[in-house]
Prior knowledge:
Layout: H1 2-28, E1 32-35, E2 57-61, H2 62-65, E3 69-79, E4 87-88, E5 90-93, E6 106-108, E7 113-114, E8 120-128, E9 138-145, E10 180-186, H3 197-200, H4 206-220, H5 224-228, H6 235-254
Parallel strand pairs: 2-10
Antiparallel strand pairs: 1-3, 3-8, 4-7, 5-9, 6-8, 9-10
Amino acid sequence: MKRIIYILSLFALLPFMGSCEKEIMDYEGQDGLYFDVQWDNNPLINTDTTRWIRQHYTLVNFAKEGTMETEVGVKVAVAGSVKDYDRPFDFKVVQDSTTAIVNEEYELLDPPYIPAGKNHTYLKLKFIRTDRMVDETVKLQIELLPNEHFTLPFKDVGYINGRFPNDAESIYSTYDHANVHNIFINNMLVKPAGWHNVQFGYYYSNKKFELLLKLAYENFGWVNADFEDRNKMQAGRAEAVARVTRIFLLEQYNLGREHWILDDDGSMMYVAGVPWKE
């Protein structure tokens, strides 16, 4: 009796199985594209770059780069098969959502294509620093387009198995669309990866970081890139920077109230060793 029920159940499922197979076959015949930009805020901890979380945007920060120009690769991935020939793909700049100026603040370096034998590539762009980026974050929005090689099957990618489960960065944008990617460009100081809370204080401000950079360069020749590299800016170097900053703050304090160095919030600027609390 159980065997008869099992056979009948198989016959009942046949129409649905045929339908699923047809849908899978249709999808396999349609290779698609989507943005799969990956980066991580803890690269020394999460060393496997293939497992980094898919991010909503790319940030180009010239204050970190310390250069006038920089090249960026925006990862574009294939949903579908790998081919033994190169496949060009198309994209456009979304003008209504872009403030960056072409040929002045960004350039496309190479015609984009998926190389033979690969399931992803990097759309290469060059960005040029301009004066307004000190006070303004400019934006470039790019959108993938379908062509004879690729469709655009997704709007929302969601979590990808095998990736680190941390949340995607959201400081500049939370907009997440598989076919659209935002790139933000500025020359503003931001809290560096090598910031040490014990030596520099838990409260970060651009004003304090500017002073740390000035004194670190004058005394040791260290620049922003050294603060961004956690392998370089370890506790011993952070203590050296805090020491010369502490000496400077105390010298200004002893000159009288009009010389005191206040932070952005109006409090006495703090580093480890000063006689006042953070």
